[in-house]
Amino acid sequence: MSSVAVLTPESFAEHRSGIKDQEMTGGVPEDEAYIPTYLEAFPPLPENKGAPGDKSGEPAGVWGSKIRPIKASVITQVFNVPLEERRYKDNSQFGDGGEEAKVCLDIMQRTGAHIELSLAKDQGLSIMVTGKLDSVMKARKEIVARLQTQASATVAIPKEHHRFVIGKNGEKLQELELKTASKIAIPRSDDPSLNIRITGTKEGIEKARHEILLISAEQDKRAVERLSLEKVFHPFIAGAHNRLVQELCQETGARISIPPPSLHKDEIVITGEKEAVALAISRIRAIYDEKKRKTTTISVEVKKSQHKYIVGPKGNSLHEIMETTGVSVEMPPLDSGSETIILRGEPDKLGPALTQVYAKAKSVMVVEVTAPAWLHRFIIGKKGQNIGRITQQLPKVHIEFTDGEERICLEGPTEEVEQAQVQIQDIIRDLLVRMDYTEVNIDQRFHRHLIGKNGANINRIKEQYKVSVWIPQEPDRSGLVRIEGDPKGVQLARRELIEMVQRMENELTKDLIVEQKFHRTIIGQKGEKIKEVRDKFPEVMINFPDPAQKSDIVQLRGPKNEVEKCAKFLAKLIADLIENSFSLSVPIFKQFHKNIIGKGGANIKKIREETTTKIDLPTENSNSEMIVITGRKNHCEAARDKILAIQRELANIKESEVTIPAKLHNSLIGSKGCLVRAIMEDCGGVHIHFPSEGSGSDRVTIRGPVVEVERAKRQLLQLAEEKQVNNFTAELQAKPNEPEQELITIVGREEAVRLAQKELETLVKNLDDMVEDSMVVETRHHRHFVCRRGQVLRELAEEYGGVAVSFPRTGTHSDRITLKGAKDCVEAAKLRIQEIIEDLEAQVSVEVAVPQRYHRAVMGPKGCRIQQITRDHEVQVKFPERDDNANNTAGQEPPPPRENGDASPESEFVLRKCDIITISGRTEKCELAKIALLALVPVTEDVKVSFELHRYIIGQKGSGIRKMMEEYEVNIWVPQPEQLSDVIKVTGQVANVERAKLGLLERVKELQAEQEDRALRSFKVSISVDPKFHPKIIGRKGAVISQIRKDHDVIVQFPDKGDEQQDVIVISGYERNTEEARSAIELLVSTLQEMVSHDVHLDPRTHARIIGARGKAIRKTMEEFKVDIRFPQPGSEDPGRVTVTGLPEIVDNAIDHLLNLEEEYMLSVTETETMAAYMKPPSRYGGGRGGGGGDNSGGAAKGFVVRDAPWNDKAPDMSSAEDFPTFGAGLAPKQTSAWGPKKF
């Protein structure tokens, strides 16, 4: 037990005074002065051993108060799934990425919970779920649903109890499902069924069933009663502030619901236990009968506007009257025009109640004070100072200002309202003397100029004349500007605003279109150039657009004459800029750039000055060879010639011209100049210059070293020749005697162009033979041609050379259709249409009876089978509407649920309307189609399969049976499990059924082979091995036993901690494999039995160094000598004893190695301890109490000293490896052996 010591000033003074008194009176020397113990100086607080209700000891009560425990936010739940309820029973994949592991991983990702699986000895599944409560509950529900086989059951409870199972917003149902890990299906409110269906595990179903029955039983005990009592007596039952009804609820335990006064309903609802409800009804009826017998009423007329004061806030005033007099006040509805108030109560109490009603009606008055609307804000004052002063003095007065109205409303107690009215009227009179206002109508387009940039103009006027100026917002579209303030200031401000408007009316705004690239040049560096322009035209405002707007409009505003002058000046400036902005790029070899610049930039500076141009050279790091010259065109050309002359002087540069047709230039340059760039790079960086597009010039210039120029010239001419061959052109008129818009141009190799020209001429000639014809088709046949998205018309167009057949629009009542196309094709299409019409005229309808349940099978996937019949036999097949209720006659129970997507094939066939399929077409074709249709009707055959194999044939979630049904295009019906039948029915087309039967029998053979194999694999053999060898057989992290399992394909199970036979190891698998695995384990055990264990004493201070960081060093030693080394546990009796286990000769070598390590590490430990002794600090008190010859008068005070204090205990030795082990190397790591963890 721990106690908390508190040293109070009193206790400290008491101890000190006691010591001093003893010293002074007795003359006892300081060395012999009494020193109290720690417990005497700091006594522990008393324990609260009294009764729970005993509060006599206040400190004990404070310290002994129960501390509310904090619940952990993370919980762990463990539950088991028996073998017979496991959904996935293939143990070979357990823990190795099997289905169960995949499912758990998916659940962990979606819920955030941590899931661990383990396999019990009986092959049951143990599942541990860790996480937050809601995550664990959701994860558990999903695990049970996905890893455990599901059963279902029903529980019947009264329909009216279903809503209590669901709970508010379905919360109770969700809680039940999470708690029981089951799915609960409650029938809809319009469903008369009483049964609630529960799906889940057996355990979950039992829990859910129990909880649902508990809820129903609890509701059976409850009762609901409705009392219809006159509304006027409800206030007497509720009482003042609803106190009476609350007392009734507490006394009886029932819940009483009285409708509010605003709801005109007489019904009072009482719910609760039956006895409590009966008691509450009797009490309410007693109150009702008493008040009905004793009360009477009086009516009074009170002004409608005063009614709210009688009611009070939230009806408090009515409750006060009820509480003091016991009289109910009935107020007319607010939307009613009635002013009559009815008081109901005992006759002797009606008088006082009436007095209170009148008092409350007159307790508040409403007064209106007239004040100009523009004065309202001045009456309120800055930040509400004026009005706040009034409301602070008279807090019960409510003052309301209405925008646009010249009145102020005051509401509150009569005396205070009168005082407030006087104060507000005084403020109004004072303001009317000191203040004035005027309004000026100014065009809205000038408002922003009046305000100025950031409000500069309007703020100056406000400060200068001490006025307020109100300019309407843009959305108001009003031109009325209001000025308020001192009368003299208002007039001066008005005059200045009018003058500003007059000046602006005489102003002119002009927009100049200036390309944005010139804006920065006109403005200049830091705005120097535009400042010169503004200084020249000071009355003109020049506004440039924001660079982000990408606008070219520069706005000028000011006096008309000045704006015109400024515009002319800027136009001239811009023209000069445009003229000087001509740009020319000159390719110069990179190595000559420095010569063009000259020493200290002399050459380039000279060229710039002589030609007045701007010359930009690429940076040294750039790969570009282009020098850009900007200025007037003739100046740029002169600068170019000077630069080229420098290059020619420095190198043997040749310039050559080649004549290539202009139409080939683009193809020679290539996409983004790729072709010409390749030639320039290949020929030592020569420069090839093509004339500008649209110039019409055929001359291409090549400049560079002589040899490279010739090479580039050859390549360019060769490329031009190839392009010339591939650019043969021919032209063709699409329509003779038509304008040039109908000209077709063909470009390519000559032979290909000639061939294409010939084909196009043939097509054009055929187009000349196009005709348009019409024929009559009765409107009743139109639908046949245009239905199915015009399929018949598409077939006609494909068959007869693209003939276009146009039918009249629906509703035109025309029977004439139009055909367009080649003459022969149109005639053939007309004959075909006539044949189709004759077929339609000769159509008959044949009925074929096929049970409705086979219709889907007859149709095939997406109706492919029926479409094939209609195409092959040129007929129309119509299926009847589906009749879902045909199987059930009125009053009969519905059939049992269908399995595998189909009903039982044994049901008898009774002809119904929904079974008739109609075939329309020619008689002989209908008969053929009927035969083909009946051939598609499924047949049913029985296949005998052992009942035990049914669930394997069905597969997980029916996957196996579905796969067979899809593969063989049949329906397979497996009997219900409770029937224990061996007959499986296969339904489908004859050929498919035969294939399915063979496939099913093949599957049975596979399953039987699997069963036999499973029986062979289930052979078990036991071996008795001393438990002390189990960890070594398992190996580090299970490495040894995993290798045995892998080598021999067996399952090896070790006994659990609680098993009686701790020495029995069970091996499962094929008989031969188990025998081999047993031999391997026996061989391993015999090797282990030969091992010996020797103890060696090593200084504990060296243990941490020998073990190493995270046991790395000791593991290396154990692997090197093939031994097991065990260090003592902390707190052991012999901390230096280390046990070494292994073969005799190896153990001795390992012990020698350990002793050598100890000797090496002890040198370091001894040196560290020696240094620590010199480094220790001196004693705080000079080495002891007796120091200084016993004279302490001049020394420092010893302070307060106690004996046996906790801080007097020996401090830990910081140089000790035992007290302070090396990080990462624990004294006794949990798993340092290659033989695995130690088992207890």
From TrEMBL:
Presence of the UniProt keyword Signal in the record: no
Domain K Homology: 149-217, 221-289, 294-362, 363-429, 434-502, 506-575, 580-648, 652-721, 769-838, 842-938, 939-1005, 1017-1086, 1090-1159
A Pfam family: KH_Vigilin
Gene3D superfamilies: K Homology domain, type 1
Location(s) in or outside the cell: Cytoplasm
GO MF, any single term: mRNA binding
Biased composition (Gly residues): 1181-1197
Keyword terms, alphabetized: Cytoplasm, Repeat, RNA-binding
Residue ranges with Basic and acidic residues bias: 12-23, 876-885
Family matches, as InterPro entries: KH_dom, KH_dom_type_1, KH_dom_type_1_sf, KH_Vigilin_N
Domain of life: Eukaryota
Region called Disordered, residue ranges: 1-27, 876-906, 1176-1240
GO cellular component terms listed in the entry, alphabetical order: cytoplasm
PANTHER family in the record: HIGH DENSITY LIPOPROTEIN-BINDING PROTEIN B, SCP160
Protein name, entry field: Vigilin
Organism: Coregonus suidteri
